[in-house]
Sequence to fold (431 residues):
Amino acid sequence: MRNKINIGLIGFGTIGSGVAKFLIEERGLLLKRTGMDFNLLLVCDKDLSSKRGVNISKSMLTKDASRVINNPDIDIVVELIGGIHPAKEIVMKDLFRGKHVVTANKLLLASEGLEIFQKAKDSNREIYFEASVAGGIPIIKAIREGMVADRFSSIMGILNGTSNYILSSMSSEGSDFKAALKEAQLKGYAEKDPSLDIKGLDSSHKLAILSLLAFGKRVDLKDIYVDGIEDISNFDIQYAKELGYVIKLLAIAKRYGSELEVRVHPTLLPSEYLLSSVSGVYNAIFIEADLVGKQLFYGQGAGKLPTASAVISDIVDIGHKIACGKNSAKSVISGNTEIKKLRKMDDVVTRYYAHFSAIDKPGVLANIADLLGRHHISIASVVQKERSSAHIVPIVMLTHEAREKDMQAALSQINKLPAIKKKSVIIRLEK
Ligand SMILES: NC(=O)c1ccc[n+]([C@@H]2O[C@H](COP(=O)([O-])OP(=O)(O)OC[C@H]3O[C@@H](n4cnc5c(N)ncnc54)[C@H](OP(=O)(O)O)[C@@H]3O)[C@@H](O)[C@H]2O)c1
Fold:
């Protein structure tokens, strides 16, 4: 039995430096815990001059990724450069050269996963990617191994710490979106260009990966309905709170027989739900499956150390397989899915929070209710507050379940009413 595993690391940035530091400084600890010697052999990065806080010998550093890919002594390559290119080419070459791969690259897997997983299968090599979804939370392992016997019915996740931080701070501080985003940037929780996070795209990448694992269904990113949090106002957050709800950016995958719906959008959740109490940069995933029932996973979804923890766990898992001489990679793409089609967003049925800004005059509420009724939408409750500015009153409603297509059609007619003075807001509600 082999017990020395050589590792090559490509990408010595935030996560890469966390992984390298652990592998170097805690090599003895890993040896004690696993009985295996994980030896970091080579580290590649475009930039070798920045300080990384890691005591590493110069001879281990290279700017040339091909030195890692072509090194016959390296067993596992850890890809931590991010993005699609050249990460894809690096991963494909590694698999081709018979190396196992660990990656945290959600964008790469969500967009090119099928080809990469197929390559891993054909090469009989492992590709592990625990850190690609929810950072330090071992959700991939939980789905692939812990719940291997289960049929999943739904997954609802708070999968983006930046958005969750912004929404939480809008809720607790009463700040507006722009101020909360600025604060998140100052604290290092949001990138200078936060688009991927606040537009819901990062969550959709993670949802695509979870859907493949839990439902066996490869979902194209373009088929996931995505709405970000930029249009969420403090008014709606505070109003939702008064009604007993919190607003979270949720990534949702729900199965109805052979149909799967996949969507990412701000969502009202009853405040007593466990998911509702997940605040700040934390992530959580709520799963329902036939055998195990309901489960909630909670933890740090990003950051150097939590993410490095997930990467190391993948390295150790692959190391054990290599040590046992097992070359039987368990493929992510079994081709065995019960999902035959994706449900169109138009056909999604859900409840809604709706906020109309209307001139304060008799009959407006009746007009809105009439248009909703004509589109088969029934109102569960209505609140009309005091006039806020120049004769404009906010009217807030919760509806019963309705079809998205009907809601959108009603909304477009309501927005054309002369009494409606601002674009109406709808936020979907999960119970
Ligand atoms: N940060 C997190 O909290 C987190 C959480 C979960 C998953 N992830 C994933 O982990 C991966 C790494 O993220 P990160 O935050 O560590 O990114 P990062 O700090 O930007 O590090 C990436 C490093 O790779 C280098 N690099 C880029 N292209 C390269 C190439 N072709 N050859 C060699 N080096 C190259 C970059 O150099 P330059 O800076 O000079 O371009 C940088 O030093 C991403 O896929 C990300 O999605 C990150």
